[in-house]
Amino acid sequence: MRSSSHALRLGVLTALLLSQVCSGIRWLTLSHAPASLHINQTHHCKLLPGLVSSQAQLCRTNLELMQTIIQAAREVKKTCQKTFADMRWNCSSIDIPSDAPKYRPDLERGTREAAFVYALSAATISHTIARACTSGDLRVCSCGPIPAEIPEPGYRWGGCADNLHYGLMMGSKFSDAPMKMKRASSNANKLMHLHNSEAGRRALREALVMKCKCHGVSGSCSIRTCWRGLQDLREIAMDLKTKYLSATKVVHRPSGTRKQLVPKDIDIRPLRENELVYLQSSPDFCTKNEKQGSVGTQDRQCNKTSLGSDSCDLMCCGRGYNPYTEKLVERCHCKYHWCCYVTCKKCERIVERYVCK
């Protein structure tokens, strides 16, 4: 209890620092919240780092939801770094101390990296809330509705569908709140972040698939009970990574009666709602450059035999690489014993690794 109170008090200073920043992903600093922290009183909300006033208000009226949102912040960080582990930019921008005044420039300048993080953040918060409804972690919601259409013969609706409707409703309210403030950054950045957040939620809607469980004598699967469930977040992140690689550069210019984001290359087709857009070109992330938000690739591990983005040639930007050896201890020669256990031996092997110069 004491450690939780101490963490909340520390959040006061953080909140004051962050109140000067209107970044729509400041709530991701909630990933630093200690596991022992429980938001169960309304005054806790104003002490949480990274929340703008409307998010704090949402917290006060939905205390139970905040534990799920904290979990979502941790999932964004973990999923982003796993998804880009084979790239020069490996989502290190998210991993900053909670008391830092702002994110690194690659997430503040309207780059395609920012586009991915906003899209992933919006998708993750709604995904996490939808799944929390299904698992019973949130008492304010339950399973998603049964589809109106009649299933095929041999199929029936049942189970507990992920409550995507509630996830999208509450997730968008929370994640879009900073961009809808009157003082929220420049209008171009605001439009970009809102567009990419909605693209992330569209990717989530497309990830709602039919899942079934078989029933029948001896596993005959004569009938299937089915429900609508979301794909794993990792799959959604990979879909967004594809959109990141094909993102469209846009400019903020008059279109009709107001300024809108339009493709920089006028000849290109109109923007699609499910694609990612960016305003500023990214650095190559080869060398460390604090001004541009690049941490460089020195000492990053690379794959000598790969032809992809994790290859030593691409990852190390032509600077070369250094080999080193590592000893791995693995289970081996496993044997099943009746009944019912398995015994294994431990085997050692030496593997060669490579890191960028």
What does this structure look like?
The structure is a single chain. With 357 residues, the protein is of the alpha+beta class. It has 2 domains: 290 residues, no CATH class; 56 residues, Wnt (Wingless and Int-1), C-terminal domain (Endo-n-acetylneuraminidase fold), CATH 3.30.2460.20. It is built from 8 helices and 11 strands. A 3-stranded mixed sheet has the order 1-3-2. Strands 5-4-6 form a 3-stranded mixed sheet. It has a 3-stranded antiparallel sheet with strand order 9-11-10. Strand 2 and strand 3 form a beta hairpin. Helix 3 packs across helix 4, helix 4 packs across helix 6 and helix 4 runs antiparallel to helix 7. It starts with a helix and ends with a strand. The N terminus is likely disordered. InterPro entries: Wnt (IPR005817), Wnt_C (IPR043158), Wnt_CS (IPR018161). Pfam families: wnt. One of its GO terms (cellular component) is extracellular space.
Number of helices: 8
Q: Strands across the major sheet, in which order?
A: 1-3-2
Q: Give the N-to-C terminal Cα separation.
A: 47 Å
The count of domains is 2
What spatial form do the alpha-carbon principal axes imply?
A: globular
Beta strand %: 15-25%
Sketch the major β-sheet.
Answer: 3 strands, mixed
- Overall pLDDT, averaged? 86
Q: What is the SS-derived class? A: alpha+beta
Residue windows where pLDDT falls under 50 for at least 5 positions: 1-22
Order of helices and strands: HHHHEHHEEHEEEEEEHEE
- The radius of gyration over CA amounts to 23 Å
Q: How many distinct beta strands?
A: 11
Helical residue percent? Answer: 25-40%
InterPro entries: Wnt, Wnt_C, Wnt_CS
Signal peptide: 1-24
Pfam family, one: wnt
Subcellular location: Secreted, Extracellular space, Extracellular matrix
